[in-house]
């Protein structure tokens, strides 16, 4: 086991920004709380988050009843 060098820290920051910022923006556009993006950094959290997102009611979409009346 080696030590944690500054290069590792820079790579970690780039990975966090590369994953977190797009997910943050997507959730914000969908009308969900963007802090849900933090779930993607938990092991298997991304899969669970996608499952919740797939079955959740989307706040930015109109109700189906409103469209047909």
Task: Write a concise synopsis of the structure shown.
With 69 residues, the protein is mostly helical. It contains three helices and no strands.
Secondary-structure blueprint of this entry?
Layout: H1 6-30, H2 45-55, H3 64-68
Could you describe the 3D structure shown?
With 69 residues, the protein is mostly helical. It has one domain (6-68). 59% of the residues lie in helices and 0% in strands. The chain is elongated and about 55 Å long. The protein starts with 5 loop residues before the first helix and ends with a helix.
Helix percentage range = 55-70%
> Judging from the principal axes of the Cα atoms, what is the shape?
elongated
Gap from first CA to last CA: 65 Å
Structural domain count = 1
The number of helical elements comes to: 3
The beta-strand count equals 0
Low-confidence stretches: none
